[in-house]
Specification:
By secondary structure, this protein is an alpha+beta fold. It contains 27 helices and 17 strands. The chain folds into four domains: 227 residues, Glutamine Phosphoribosylpyrophosphate, subunit 1, domain 1; 216 residues, 3-Layer(aba) Sandwich (Rossmann fold); 94 residues, no CATH class; 69 residues, no CATH class. Strand 14, helix 9 and strand 15 form a beta-alpha-beta unit. The longest helix is centred in the last third of the chain and has 22 residues.
């Protein structure tokens, strides 16, 4: 696992190599074991710089040093991630005459590009963000894995193109014009994360999952295209003879996905919450791995948040070497105040706090940890798939929209709660209804954001999904929407930044693309039978672990911010929102901020999520300002 950085200057003066090196050092936390740079000027004067920081997982020798150059074509690569099936690809390439000098996947990826060109990624099974300078074609190619497990940002202003694993590295390049994107900021204030391809900066985009970017040097203009889309599989449901046939195939595909992710030259383990997804991953690991197996859990003193006893029971049943750490309010509160230092753009999913603490504990014992992420999106485990609001959609949709608009107008005169319900029923289609049921009440503090920015990316993504899957049921559509947005820009972002902050590689076998393709093609009737969330994963897990050990209501992986913003964190929140050295009040209305916090502290309403989003925005701005203004890199605070 690594951090990558690249910059191409087509016109004008390129950055000094020392400036590029300082920017690269912003990614040292992602790859503390090695660092390398490569600089080149083409005959027409185009300047290219590549850099990589390395976390050594496979082939710990210097043979895996990057940037790496192809001895056959001269192409240069920087790569972040893992290609788990690289040994099979290597064997195929050896049959075509290729020779290899290392045991790392980077060399195989480069040879695969030499052999198959832009189709190279279609052979890969893994998580990856790749930058390649193709000497023969004089072009830059960027590639991001099918599910967006690994991040990849790119900047373009017509004169220079830059890319990086994190915005922190781009922010340390003074030649880039980085102004806050108010469309992204408005979207962030609605749901707590920034949906792609938007980023917090106007000229920076996230390369979408399953996409390639090309930029020819002769006529530079980035071109983006897809090489894989899960909607292709949602659109073609398969026929199965029955549930047992599905479970047999799912078991085989998941077992293979787990087996691939046990390939490592360093110690590995697994996160274990005691829930369905992580328990299934560990159960399959135990079937494959005969030696000691380490598992890790965070516990809380508050019973409503604590899953440690359930995880302990699963660990005992599977005979793992289990590690757990109970968190006190004091060390969690300390993490609350500093977690924003590990995120490169504003991010307000409060579960990033325990995720960071879990990653820190896990990194003390292992370098790689398997995670159960992906099961909720693929097998419909979230509560919002079956909330009362979502169940009402079918009935409300039968009422003509003009009548619903009239009712909404009356409701909006009844105060904030009426505004929320009124906006919810005033929908045009399922994507709008779904989006409005997922965001914070948009009418509560309508003047909070000073700037006008009306584009709603969540709605746009939902409508793109619905257009590709006309006539499909709401469960399938909401699951596909989550896979395209919430999973990649919230869940996977959270896990990547928290784990890489402490140089821990997190692997997600449920998001192996073969598992995703199978899950997407399973007819909805099998997933919703009996009204049981994640029915298929539950049935599969029951083959390995008695239901009595794990069959319980789902708990969130969060912290009690609702209470703390009224007690322990009240003064800190007031100080941060009133200024705190950030530009928060340049973007947000001070009066709305104070009213919002006062409403929460008094108990008039719970808006802890929106308060947390504003606090994380302020934290992000202070950190990025330090980076932009510093002559030396601002170190990561992870440890």
């Amino acid at each position: 696992m690594c951090g990558i950085l690249g910059k191409v200057t087509f016109r004008g003066e390129a950055d000094d190599p020392a400036v590029f090196e300082r920017a690269l050092r912003m990614l040292d936390h992602r790859g503390p074991d090695d660092r390398g740079t490569w600089h080149h000027v083409t005959p027409d004067g185009t300047s290219i710089s590549f850099g990589q920081t390395r976390l050594s997982i496979l082939d710990l020798s210097d043979a895996g040093h990057q940037p790496m150059t192809s001895p056959r074509s001269g192409a240069v690569i920087v790569f972040n991630g893992e290609v788990y099936n690289f040994r099979e690809i290597r064997t195929r390439l050896e049959g075509k005459g290729y020779q290899f000098t290392s045991e790392c996947d980077t060399e195989v990826i480069l040879a695969a590009y030499d052999e198959w060109g832009e189709q190279f990624a279609e052979n890969f099974r893994g998580m990856f963000a790749i930058g390649i300078f193709d000497v023969r074609r004089q072009r830059l190619l960027l590639c991001r894995d099918r599910l967006g497990i690994k991040p990849l940002y790119y900047y373009w202003d017509g004169r220079q193109l830059a890319f990086a694993s994190e915005l922190t590295a781009l922010s340390a390049l003074p030649s880039l014009e980085l102004n806050v994107c108010h469309t992204a900021l408005r979207n962030y204030l609605r749901q707590g994360f920034i949906p792609g391809p938007l980023s917090i900066y106007e000229r920076v985009r996230k390369l979408s999952q399953g996409h390639l970017l090309f930029c020819d040097f002769v006529k530079p203009e980035p071109q983006v295209k897809s090489f894989w889309d899960p909607l292709d599989y949602y659109a073609q449901p398969r026929h199965f003879s029955g549930e047992e046939a599905i479970l047999d195939e799912l078991n085989d595909v998941l077992t293979q996905a787990v087996r691939y992710r046990l390939i490592s030259d360093v110690p590995l383990g697994a996160f274990l919450s005691g829930g369905i997804d992580s328990s299934l991953v560990v159960a399959l690991m135990r079937q494959i791995h005969t030696g000691p197996l380490k598992t890790f859990t965070i516990g809380f003193s508050e019973p409503e948040w604590d899953e440690a006893p359930a995880a302990r029971r699963i660990a005992e049943h599977l005979d793992t070497e289990h590690h757990e750490q109970y968190l006190s309010e004091a060390n969690v509160l300390d993490a609350v105040r500093t977690v924003g230092d590990h995120y490169d753009e504003p991010f307000a999913d409060e579960s990033n706090i325990p995720t960071l603490l879990l990653s820190k504990m896990t990194r003390q014992k292992v370098t790689v940890a398997l995670s159960g992420d992906g099961g909720d999106e693929l097998f419909w485990g979230y509560n919002h798939y079956d909330t009362r609001a979502m169940r009402w959609f079918k009935g409300l949709n039968r009422i003509p929209r003009p009548l619903r608009r009239m009712a909404a107008g009356s409701l909006k005169m009844l105060g904030p709660e009426g505004v929320r319900i009124g906006q919810l029923i005033e929908f045009e289609d399922l994507p709008m209804y779904y989006m409005r049921s997922r965001i914070w009440p948009p009418g509560l503090y309508r003047d909070l954001h000073r700037c006008e920015a009306r584009e709603d990316r969540l709605l746009a993504i939902g409508r793109q999904v619905a257009a590709r899957l006309p006539g499909r049921d709401r469960h399938l559509l909401t699951g596909a929407m989550d896979l395209h947005c919430y999973l990649v820009d919230d869940i996977l972002t959270k896990v990547d930044r928290a784990s890489m902050a402490v140089a821990l590689e997190a692997r997600v076998p449920i998001l192996d693309h073969h598992v995703v393709q199978l899950a997407a093609a399973i007819p909805s009737s099998f997933k919703t039978a009996g009204g049981e969330k994640k029915r298929l994963l539950r049935a599969l897990l029951a083959r390995y672990i008695p239901r009595s050990l794990w069959d319980r209501p789902k708990k969130g992986f969060g912290v009690p911010l609702v209470r703390w913003f009224r007690t322990s964190l009240k003064d800190w929140a007031y100080d941060e929102l009133r200024g705190g050295g950030s530009r928060l009040c340049d973007w947000l209305d001070r009066g709305c901020l104070e009213q919002m916090l006062s409403d929460h502290v008094s108990g008039r309403r719970n808006v802890s999520g929106l308060i947390w989003a504003c606090l994380q925005l302020a934290s992000w701005d202070r950190r990025l300002a330090r980076i932009r203004n510093a002559r030396e890199p601002v170190p990561s605070l992870a440890g």
